[in-house]
Write a structure and sequence with these properties.
The structure holds 2 protein chains of 2 kinds. By secondary structure, chain A is mainly alpha-helical. Chain A contains 5 helices and 2 strands; from the N terminus they run αααββαα. Classes of the chains: A mainly alpha, B alpha/beta.
């Protein structure tokens, strides 16, 4: 019912061209403001990823690097998750899914015990914590 | 001390800078302020004709800057408001005839005697814009709810920030409420979202603006004009009054209000 009235007021009506105008403006202004066209931004992202990948293994599928606006300031916000660390010298069967990583919050105590029970599988950081 | 220097600029041409300057000048003078309006669009003089003062020009801004006349001689007194003066642009020269330092010096001479000095900036981002902005205490950016005008406004705001004159305040001019309602025109909210600066006024599209320009009597003198009212409100805000800026697009008909009540009741 309310949808009907909303339509009467022209609110929920299929969006007109103004939403397209807003979207297009927001996109173009992000690049105008830092004077960096989209292709160059993409090249910059790839270069950033290449540098980081020299030191750590990056989870390519989850990488998110994007320009954001905070009031009138532009910032590059990057979320670059690392791949779960695999200890090649340890037996594969000990790998536990969802194992905490460097930078993760301290896992609850129960996890600790679980990890302990499954043998000496943890990463260096886990071992140090014990 | 003394006058507040307010520059009206836009980036894009044709969005209503000159109309805005003329109307704010008249509105401020009518409320008892001592006002000088300066046409900084050298080579494309227009503020005089919009204000109906084109027949009185003897000297202009460039004459003052180059010392061919005294400042007072280039100040044209308004017919209706003796405390409102215009310094016209030169018509036969170009923007390089004046420098930003000249503009600062000129306004410094005027400041002690006036309440407001309004500067009508030329379009563009070059010398003329820098001349107009150099002495400003406050900058008003005029834009229309169109992609080209909004993009240019953003560029201007960026330049103002870089010169520590920013970010300025926005005047959204020529808003067509029926189109906004249909979603075919950017709303004031859309534009302030995009530009992220403070809105000092929304001026509705109004058919009485052009007849007012035609006769050289700015529309703000027309009590029945909605655009005129919007300019008066902006003038009051410049004087420091706290008048909320509300979108012009709500003609709040009876049915509309009922339906609104009903809908909000349903949603809550």
């Amino acid at each position: 019912m309310s949808g009907f009235f909303e339509r009467m007021l022209g609110r929920n009506a299929p969006k007109g061209s103004s939403s397209k105008a807003k979207e297009r403006l927001q996109f173009v202004l992000v690049h105008d403001r830092i004077n960096l066209p989209p292709e160059q931004l993409e090249a910059m992202k790839q270069e950033i990823l290449r540098v980081i990948s020299k030191y750590v293994r990056v989870d390519d599928k989850k990488v998110d690097i994007a320009l954001q606006q905070r009031d009138r300031d532009s910032l590059l916000v990057a979320e670059i998750p690392f791949q779960k660390r695999r200890e090649r010298e340890e037996p594969e069967e000990d790998e536990i899914e969802g194992k905490p990583q460097l930078g993760d919050e301290t896992p609850p105590a129960s996890n600790h015990i679980e990890g302990g029970e499954s043998g000496e599988s943890g990463s260096k950081s886990r071992r140090n914590r014990r | 001390m003394g006058a507040k220097v307010v520059t009206i600029t836009s980036g894009k041409g044709g969005v209503g800078k000159t109309t805005t300057t003329a109307n704010l000048g008249v509105a401020l003078a009518r409320m008892g302020n001592k006002v000088v309006v300066i046409d900084a669009d050298i080579g494309l003089r227009n503020l005089d004709v919009v204000m109906g003062l084109e027949n009185r020009i003897v000297y202009d801004l460039v004459d003052v800057v180059e010392g061919r006349c005294k400042l007072r001689q280039a100040m044209i007194k308004h017919k209706q408001f003796p405390e409102l003066y215009l310094i016209p642009a030169a018509q036969t020269r170009d923007k390089s005839a004046v420098s930003p330092a000249d503009m600062i010096q000129l306004t410094d001479h005027l400041r002690p005697e006036f309440d407001f000095i309004l500067i009508d900036s030329p379009a563009g981002i070059e010398r003329g814009f820098r001349n107009a902005v150099a002495p400003a205490d406050e900058v008003l950016i005029v834009t229309n709810p169109e992609v080209s005008a909004v993009r240019d406004a953003d560029r201007i705001i960026g330049l103002l920030e870089a010169e520590n004159k920013g970010p300025g305040q926005l005047i959204l001019n020529r808003v067509k409420s029926d189109m906004v309602r249909k979603g075919e025109m950017l709303s004031a909210d859309d534009v302030t979202d995009i530009l992220a600066i403070r809105l000092i006024g929304i001026v509705p599209e109004d058919e009485s603006v052009i007849p007012a320009s035609n006769s050289g009597t700015p529309v703000t003198l027309n009590e029945h004009s909605r655009a005129g009212q919007a300019f008066r409100d902006i003038a009051r805000r410049l004087m420091g009054e706290n008048i909320p800026v509300v979108p012009v697009d709500e003609p709040n008909g009876f049915l509309r209000r009922i339906v609104k009540l009903f809908v909000s009741g349903n949603d809550g």
